[in-house]
Amino acid sequence: MAASRYRIHDDRMAEATLPGMLARVPGTAATALRWAWRASPRDTAATLLLHAAAGVLEELFSAVPTADRVAAALPALLALAGAAVARGALQAAAGWAQARLKPQVERRAEVHLFDLTARIELESFDDSSFNDAMYRARDRGLYEAGRVIDAAVEVLSAAIGLAAVAGVLAVLHPVLLPLLALTVAPAGWAAVRAARMRYRQMRELTNGRRRKWTLGDLLASRDSAAELRAYTMGRFLLEEYTRLADRERAAMLAVARRQTAVRAVGDAAGGAATAATYAALGALLLAGGMPLAVAGTAVLAIRQGQAALQTLLFSVNMMYESGLYFTDFTEFCAAARRRLPPPPPAGARPPGPLRELAVRGVHFCYPTAEEPALRGVDLRVRAGEIVALVGENGSGKTTLARLICGLYRAQRGAVAWNGADVAELPGEALRRRIGLIAQEYCRWPMTAERNVAMDAAADRARLSRAARQSGADAVVARLARGWDTVLDPRFAQGADLSGGQWQRIAGARGLYRDADLLIVDEPTAALDARAEHAFFETLREHARGRTVVLITHRLASVRMADRIVVLDRGRVAEQGGHAELMARGGLYAELYRLQADAYRERAA
Ligand SMILES: Nc1ncnc2c1ncn2[C@@H]1O[C@H](COP(=O)(O)OP(=O)(O)OP(=O)(O)O)[C@@H](O)[C@H]1O
């Protein structure tokens, strides 16, 4: 498989320099504010303006040492009190706007992510690095979408506060400002380094965490609960889980140790720089470069400045760290957008009723597979035909069905619907003309009605017909709430079905669609003999005026097909009618006889 583009991102992060990483902060702030603006322009504007106003008021009246001013003018005190009240009100209003903004951004981010994941090309889910990126985006990225907004606002308020103090310092003496920056720089360096360590470690742990999450799911899921007990897998899975959790804990402790060391170095260097600053002030005083009163004010202003810078640094660091995770989210969204199916060419018309389906020289290899699943398959299906696809496990039948539905794209060759390449037809319009009864159908945790109609509103007449044809009507009749029963016992008043009952529901789903082309992949594996017989009778009836591609290992049922196509390791090995293939004595005849003999022996 080609190296994933996500690896490139990993390397870029690992090699980034500190200034380079700090340079990301404005970009991240801009992206965060863009997201905020799209979520709610009103709340974004209110948050920014109110915070800015509160910050200006605060610094105007309290940042500057005011001893002289207090003595000089008592009314200033009153102004100060008024300003404090106004500032409090502004801060409260800003907090309220910000609190409203955060959930809106989170909601927007979530909906955006799931809108993309529901539309990207199916094969994306086979790419492990894409899955890693998706996990990171969902696990932490979404959560950070709200935090990054808070951080961006904090940075803005802190910057305003600092600007006010910096103005005062610059007026007192030009050397004070660089000295102030010097005292805070080491702590800044340490904070950024610590954040980068944490983030890099998180990236390295992603795969293990995903695995741990999968194991946790197996240990606490209804789907695996029975087999987990039957095979006494609990201890094994738990040991594996513990091993991964221990490894994660050890890695986190190691990072915590390194972070502490870095912070200690930063604090020590910061202390030394503060001492140097005061020494410089002393030197200025002794050399007569600064009067005593100004030096006193400068000490207070430096303290105030240090506090303001620390606040800025803290918020920049929060912004930077949240930004790294938020970037995971935005980059995943960008990568997902690149995986959306290309739009149909301009002027492409929706496919009309099926006259002929042609598979021409189709070659397909799964992204993670070494061997191609299909190697130059040719097939023609005319409207009204029932074509059976048979072949041993792994011969490519399901893959071919997915290509016909346009769920995967052929790497060579094409599938044509009435002569038009399905890759160039509008995907949704194409799929509305195709019904798929999948081999691994989904057991949707929804009502029986939605499980069949796959829509919020069902057409009652079609629903009853599909249920009657598939035998799902008998299943629904036994449910306490009929069609309104939720088919998942994890939910209140939910019910579960047997394997065969579920298969009848899945069969009804395919028939309900009333499509031109019905693809049925192993539709009767779990059905009892009577239901199986009835289902194939239904297919025959359904095929009148429509077209059916039937995939099955039940070769006795295949005889009803107009044509049988035998796949062998991704190629069409033979095709024709039942009698023709039996006379040929090839793979089909061999498989058929094996099944027939098994019945004969049992009968004997
Ligand atoms: N998502 C996937 N990623 C990688 N390889 C896959 C994937 N799905 C199927 N394959 C491989 O592609 C080949 C064809 O699989 P396919 O499911 O089409 O076979 P099939 O004929 O339907 O088999 P069965 O009779 O067992 O249902 C197999 O070798 C299989 O291992």
TrEMBL record:
Origin superkingdom: Bacteria
Annotated ranges, domain ABC transporter: 357-594
Coiled coil: none
Membrane topology: Multi-pass membrane protein
Primary residence: membrane
InterPro entries: AAA+_ATPase, ABC1_TM_dom, ABC1_TM_sf, ABC_transporter-like_ATP-bd, P-loop_NTPase, Type_1_exporter
Species for this entry: Nocardiopsis composta
Transmembrane regions: 148-169, 175-195
Domain ABC transmembrane type-1: 77-321
Location of the protein in the cell: Cell membrane
GO molecular function: ABC-type transporter activity; ATP binding; ATP hydrolysis activity; ATPase-coupled lipid transmembrane transporter activity
Full protein name: ATP-binding cassette subfamily B protein/ATP-binding cassette subfamily C protein
One term under GO cellular component: plasma membrane
Database matches in PROSITE patterns: ABC_TM1F, ABC_TRANSPORTER_2
Alphabetically ordered keywords of this record: ATP-binding, Membrane, Nucleotide-binding, Transmembrane, Transmembrane helix
SUPFAM superfamilies: ABC transporter transmembrane region, P-loop containing nucleoside triphosphate hydrolases
CDD domains linked to this entry: ABCC_MRP_Like
